[in-house]
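Need residues for this backbone.
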């Protein structure tokens, strides 16, 4: 049995409108204790989802604001329960008094994400949709908004559900054949099983293929600025950010620790990591910094390899060029173009198909750099097949389902009995159930919703 929860759903700063939100049994009755409609009618009598104008009262019954109240009755609400909203002036003190009055009227404070959690428990959203709500709140680019919106609209759930249903049919049919040998049921054909498994595998691996892009869109591309000391890595970071984030000097070894900032380049969100310049020697601090540089490169989807193009390449550039290969992709950035370029550009172009000539000092070439990054990470547009996996939990569930189906298929082709293969099919169904939340452990649910803010 669920109880009545209340929260302030808007940020605690003076703003145009602030919203108090309630969900659970008795929501309308609680509002009636803190709100007087100018019409004289109570909210318990008010029609569903109509805006009612009136006065908000504090817990002593003193008027504190003029507000709009609305009731959405179960099951036609965000949470699937009776819910109420009070749209007040966005005054933090008014909202705090209003919330206190709601507590006095029987509500208790909502926990982080509890409204959305209830929506999930009441079947209003599945787990991937609930996660999409979180992604939408945190979206920093157009593509991230579109991806979260696609997931919220059920893009992933639909694809997972199609595969799930096919596997349910398969195992139901099979159990029927096994359990009722005397009944007139179509015999189970090996070919049917094999085909169905193959369809499931194809669907799941297509879904899994969306993960890398989906993750980059939702969380940003991990991108490391690599290069020898004094190549201009920190200058480039500052130029891309548009302010002096990192210290720049002409002393080699200026940057010693990693510095991380997010930046949007042509719609691509980059988690840009400035690192200690790579060179032989250096003091103990610098050497530790270089270890961090290497570790960052190992995790990077992109290295921006910064070279000082105004002087010939040095042995330290060669070290940096080799280290940059640790990243999944390398974009070569030939810097200091304002001083003239003496490095052998054709030779570099032959080695690095993605290459840009820039000046971190004047800003020349930075728009080309943005375009080159965008070309490496094409962003999905609005409505363009947006069912993308965006987090590790989703990817792990799909991977488990796919592995189980492959196992079933392998075993089946190797001649193990179909009922043994079906055990693996059922394992795949379990993993798909976890993806959408049909079957999911309580602690996993806790973790997902604890990421949300109070009032969401
Ligand atoms: N003329 C010119 N000078 C630049 C440019 N970019 C950087 N510099 C200069 O090069 C020197 C080194 O720049 P940094 O950005 O500190 O180089 P870094 O690669 O971060 O160096 P470390 O942190 O020591 O590894 C500074 O004196 C900068 O002003 C550029 O595009 N043109
Ligand atoms: Mg630096």
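Answer:
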């Amino acid at each position: 049995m669920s109880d009545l929860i209340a929260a302030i759903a808007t940020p605690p700063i003076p703003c145009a409108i602030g919203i108090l939100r309630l969900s659970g049994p008795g929501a309308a009755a609680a509002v009636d204790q803190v709100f007087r409609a100018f019409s004289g009618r109570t909210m318990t009598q008010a029609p569903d989802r109509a805006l009612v104008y009136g006065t908000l009262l504090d817990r002593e019954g003193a008027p504190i604001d003029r507000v709009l109240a609305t009731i959405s009755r179960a099951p036609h609400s965000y949470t699937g329960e009776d819910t109420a909203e009070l749209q007040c002036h966005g005054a933090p003190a008014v909202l705090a008094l209003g919330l206190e009055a709601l507590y006095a009227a029987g509500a208790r404070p909502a926990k982080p994400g509890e409204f959305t959690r209830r929506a999930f428990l009441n079947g209003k959203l599945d787990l991937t949709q609930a996660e999409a709500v979180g992604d939408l709140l945190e979206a920093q680019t157009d593509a991230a908004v579109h991806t979260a919106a696609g997931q919220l609209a059920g893009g992933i759930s639909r694809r997972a559900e199609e595969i799930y249903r096919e596997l349910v049919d398969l195992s139901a049919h099979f159990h029927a054949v096994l359990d009722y040998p005397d009944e007139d049921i179509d015999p189970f054909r090996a070919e049917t099983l094999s085909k169905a498994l193959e369809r499931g595998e194809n669907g799941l691996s297509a879904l899994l293929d969306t993960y890398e892009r989906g993750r980059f869109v939702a969380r940003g591309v991990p991108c490391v600025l690599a290069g020898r000391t004094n190549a201009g890595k920190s200058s480039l970071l500052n130029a891309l950010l548009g302010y002096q984030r990192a210290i720049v000097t002409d002393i080699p070894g200026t940057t010693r620790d990693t510095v991380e900032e997010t930046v949007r380049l042509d719609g691509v969100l980059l988690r840009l990591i400035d690192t200690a310049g790579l060179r032989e020697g250096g003091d103990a601090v610098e050497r530790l910094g270089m270890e961090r540089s290497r570790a960052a490169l190992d995790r990077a989807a992109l290295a921006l390899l910064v070279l000082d193009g105004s002087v010939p390449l040095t042995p330290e550039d060669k070290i940096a060029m080799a280290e940059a290969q640790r990243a999944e992709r390398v974009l070569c950035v030939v810097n200091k173009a304002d001083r003239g370029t003496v490095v052998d550009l054709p030779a570099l172009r032959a080695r690095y198909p993605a290459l840009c000539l820039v000046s971190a000092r004047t800003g020349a070439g930075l728009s080309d750099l943005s375009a080159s990054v965008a070309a490496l990470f094409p962003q999905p547009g609005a409505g363009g097949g947006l069912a993308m996996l965006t987090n590790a939990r989703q990817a792990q569930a799909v991977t488990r389902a796919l592995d189980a189906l492959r196992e079933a298929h392998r075993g089946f082709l190797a001649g193990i009995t179909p009922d043994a293969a079906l055990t693996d099919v059922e394992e795949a169904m379990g993993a798909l159930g976890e993806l959408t939340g049909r079957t999911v452990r309580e602690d996993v649910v806790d973790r997902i919703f604890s990421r949300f803010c109070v009032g969401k």
